[in-house]
User: What shape does this take?
Amino acid sequence: EAGVAQSPRYKIIEKRQSVAFWCNPISGHATLYWYQQILGQGPKLLIQFQNNGVVDDSQLPKDRFSAERLKGVDSTLKIQPAKLEDSAVYLCASSTRTSGRETDTQYFGPGTRLTVL
Amino acid sequence: QKEVEQNSGPLSVPEGAIASLNCTYSDRVSQSFFWYRQYSGKSPELIMSIYSNGDKEDGRFTAQLNKASQYVSLLIRDSQPSDSATYLCAVSLFSGGYNKLIFGAGTRLAVHP
Assistant: This one.
C-alpha cells in the first residue's frame, strides 16, 4: 500500500512570496490533515478535511494560509504572502475514519521543509 | 496551561536499560492516546495507541494510562541505540463531532552504547 505522498520535499522562498504544497493521501482515506511543525515543537493541526469538506480550520491563519481538497482526494496548502515565522515542516496525514469519538490512526507523509528568508 | 505536556529531555539511557517517557494532558474527556516516534528529519510514525486505563504491551514497548491522573507514559525495555529519537505524545480532542490530535512538544531520547 502506497503511503502519503507530498511535494515538494524542500522549498526556500523569500518573505512575501507565495508557496504551495501538495498532498496525496493513502487511497481510500476519507480524512486528510495538514500540520505545521516548527523546530523543537510537536505538530500543530492547521486544517482537517473530511472528504472534501473542512471540519476544523481553527488554527489556520486565514489571512495568509488557504487549503483545498478538490474531489476529496488530493489537497493543496498555500501560503501567500509568506512570513519568516512560517519556516517549518508542513506535514500531511490521512486516516480512514469519517467521524465519531474513536480516533483512527493517522499516517504521515514525509513532509515539506519550508525555509523563508 | 499547555494541553499536552512532555519533558523535552534529552533523556539519556544506556543500551539495555528501560527508558521511561511521561506525558500529562489537560482535557479530562480525552479518550484516545498515542505515542509517535520521530527520527531527526523524518515524519512521525505511530508506535503505540491506548484507550483504556492500565497497561498495553507491544514487544519492547509498554504504554500506561491513568485517566484519573491525566497521565500517560511509554516504557521502552532493552533500549537500543536505534531507539534514539523524539517521542511525541498525542491526545485526542473531540470537538464538533470530530476528533483531532493535540501533540506534545516531544521528549528526545538518546540511547548510548
Summary: Chain A has a mean pLDDT of 92. DSSP finds no helices and eleven strands in chain A.
